[in-house]
Every structure is written in structure tokens, then in C-alpha cells.
Amino acid sequence: MLVWPPLVVLVISEEPKQIHQKVAKSSRYIYGVHRSIKNKNLIMAAYEKNRGGSSVEDAEMQSLFTDDSPREKKRNFPNQPIKGLALALLLASIAFIFFSFSNQSSKWFLFRCQRPYSSTAAPSTSAPVTLSNNRPPNSNYTPQKKSITNISHILFGIGGSAKTWKDRKHYSELWWKAGIMRGFVWLDEDPTSTSTSTSTSTTQQSSWPPASPPYRVSKQPDSRFNQPAVRIARIVLESFRLGLPNVRWFVMGDDDTVFFAHNLVSVLSKYDHRQMYYVGGNSESVEQDVMHSYGMAFGGGGFAISYALAAELHNKLDGCIGRYSNLYGSDERIMACLSEIGVPLTPELGFHQVDIREDPYGLLAAHPLAPLVSLHHLDAVNPLFPTKTQLESLKKLISAYEADPGRTLQQSFCHDHKRNWSVSLSWAYTVQIYPYLMSARDLGIAFRTFKTWRSWSDGPFTFNTRPISADPCVRPLVYFLDHVTNKKNNNNNNNNNDHETLSTYRRHVADSSKFCERKDYHAALAVNVVNVTAPKMERDEWEKAPRRQCCEILNGNSSSDGADQPRVLHIKISRCE
């Protein structure tokens, strides 16, 4: 059923003035008739109340209201205006139906829904957007067709401080590729400004490290934005207003965040940047998620905002920030503002806030089935590799990651039923050999080698953990990555899948380690080196339904007494069959 107001009739009709006159005239007449009937009723009521006269008087009184003369009938029933009004209503109805089903826009329909944002056109540049080149943000960005996302489509925004950058720059310099990546470190002040040394009373000019990402100084329009959390929250806004072309994703991180950019691209390629997406990860510690929000992407682990969402956010963020001054960090304020827009978090398990203390080994040895995207809080945990500093550990991990980015930290299981062994490996990090059989379910649960972030307790965490037994006959033998080399198959094709990697792991013996005296354990102790052969992961692997890959022990025919036990264990990773 079509419902339309009388106003439409007047606007769409061919002769609005004539119809207006007829309607006004008819309205005045109806109003007069109404008053006449009302007066008649009052007079009749008074007459009935005080009636005492003759029947003649009654007849005369009735005749006042029952004159059936043709003249009165014509006056009381104005047929001509009624017919005109009915005709006008009929014409207006036909016109209204025609316009309702027409595909063309009509200037008469004043109240229309706003057209949703389309990335094929530049967003509105109404205040407060101001650009030095007088062009709208990303005015060159017109992706009519969705092509494959690559690293050039990502704009990084790193929150930092001019005073602390020299102590944290090594984290960004580990992954930043000048000339390939785009982005800026957003600082609170210019780091190259002239400063006076109080100890020497001399003036010195500092220079920006050439291996670091380029920097920008955050703008502070008014006193509301002096708080560090607010300043960092506005990095999304300031990055968008730069108006750089062909930006699909705005990726935020801290100055101590280590990104694995190839895997970041793999993750973001799954999503349409022309839609509103907010991608990131939670904290590992439940206490942190409860305190802040399970629906928030923790900023240290990094998060990504699609171009479409940034276009929606950039004119709302400054007004929104003031409503959430009670919130703690920049990431929490961003989440609150996105909640007003109605966009939830799209969680990805490869973003790691690393809200844990002590040893991260258990977390990295049982990495979820997702590409490794980021690591954070690396100053607050033990080095990833024993006997090395954290910086040396990260260089080692990144060197292996560059050989096969998508496979980094991916866990595989295999069993040797003749020797009753179970093997778990986290590619490019560690191998564990259990001299007994374990289920895949148990092997996939992380060792609890760490504590919660705030209370330093044994949990809870957002994933399952298991304790490390004090019994040396229950604990696995642990091997850490030594190096990774590229190995090409016999095929001459240049396809990426025709290449393999050979990663080598050596057994680590802690100073306080106790050895199991069981005979079956001695056979496993004879293995000093584990070599793992694996095909390089295909680019589109993470666009498919996730499935853990399997491994196979190649030299698994030795006897269980250890007499001919090899010192090198050979393992091959492949797709499960």
C-alpha cells in the first residue's frame, strides 16, 4: 500500500494554484456547515428544554431547519467544488504512482537517505580537512576494480616520541624497507631541532637515523590533544589527511612493534578495503581484555583500518575523542569511536600484543594456525632464543622469516610409532621431541612458560596452556633454530612452489637440566640435530580454509634401543593427505 501526504498532491499536480483555491474554498464551506449544525443543535436543545408553546410553534421551529427548497439543497451540497477536488486527487494519485516507480531522481522528494560511501569517489573534504596542496585526501584513489593488495597499498603510522626514539628505533629498523614501504613515525616534537646540552653547555644538531621510517610531527589544534593517548589516536586521522594516492589500509603500531609485512599483506588481502574493516587482535591476558575490551584491537600488536572506514572516521574522530576522555589509551579511544560508527573488530590471531611476562617460548612454540603478523612488548619478555640478546634473537627470526614468510612459526606434528615418539615443530623457531606418544590435541596446547601481564600470575589467558612438568622423563627434548637455507627442487620451473627450505635445529641443554635415566629416553637423547625440509608456502595459502600441515620422520626405521639411533633426525613437511 502506498502512503503519501496531502502535500505531495499539491506539489506534483499540474495546476497547484487552482487546486489550492478550490481546497481553501471547500474548507471554508465545510467549516461554515459545521458551525451551522452546531448552532442548530444548541437552539434545538434550548427549545426542547423550555418548550411550552403550541404545535404551530413547534412546526415553525422545525421549519427553520428543514427547508427542503431547491435553493438550499444547492447551497448545502456544492457539487462543482467536490467534483473538481475529486478530479484533482485522481490526477495527483496517477502522477504520484508514476514518480514512485520511476528510476529517475525527483527534486520534489526532499528527504532522501544519504548515499553510502563509495571508494570510487573521493570522500567529503568538508572542514576540518585542510591540505597544503588544496586537493581532497586520496583524490587520485579510484579503484573501480579490486586488484591484489600489495605492500605499496599500506600506509604505516607508528606512534613514537622524539625523546625515546633513539632507544626504540631498532625495532622498526628490523622490518622497515625504505623505498618499498610507505609510512611515518609520528612524533610529539621535531627531533632535529637545535638543543642545548646542559653538561657541556654546547649546542648540537641531532639528525634523523637513515634506516628509520621518515617522521612527521603530530599537529595539536587545541589543548584537548596534548595528551599522548589522544595524539597517538589522531595518527589515523592525520595519515588519512595526507591524501597519499592508492592507500587501501592504514596500519597503526607502537615504536616497539615488530611487523612481519609480507604476512600482514596476506591477511589484509582477504578483506575488501572498499568496505569498513577494523582488523587486529586482543591481549593474551584475560585481565587486560576485561579491563579494556575484548572488542578492541590492542595498539601495540598493531591494527589495520580500511580506507573506507578511515574515510568515515576522519571527520568524526576529533569530536568523538572528547566524549571518551576517561578511557586509558589511544587504542581504546579508537575502538570507542568505531563503536559509534557501528564497525566491530575483525580478529586475526597473528597480531600479538604479547601481554605476558617472563619466557614467551610456550606462546611461539604453539602458534595458532594463522600467519605471524606482529610482536610487541619484546623488552618485557626473555629473549626468544637462549644465549642471545633480544635484538639478536629478532634478527635471527626475521632472517628465517624472509626465506618463507607464510610458514614462520607454523606448527606441525608427526609420530614415529616404531619408537613411540611424538614430534612438534614450530617452523623457524623450535622442535620438541617427546619419547612417548601424545595426541595432536595435547601437542597443540602451549606450555605455560609465562605469566600474565599485570598480576604476574599463571593465568587465565585467552588460549589453553599446560604446565611444564618437573619430571625430566615427561619433559620433551628442545631444539632451537640454527639456520635456514633455500633448497631448489629438481624441477626447472620457476614457480615459487618448486622451491624448498632446509631448516636446521640444534638441541638446547639448560644448565640446570636433569636427564631421564630411562632406556627409551636415551634413544631420543642421541639426536643432536633436526633437519626439516619444507616446500615454500604458496601466496594464496591463507586465502584457503585453514588446515595445519603434516610432517613425516624420514629416518624412522631405527630400533628403539638406540643402537643405531641417528644423531641427525630428518623431517619433511607437506600437506596432509
From TrEMBL:
The UniProt entry, under InterPro entries, shows:
DUF604
Compositional bias of kind Polar residues: 133-145
Mark out the compositionally biased spans (Low complexity): 119-132, 195-207
Give positions of region: Disordered: 119-145, 195-223
The name this protein goes by in its record: Uncharacterized protein
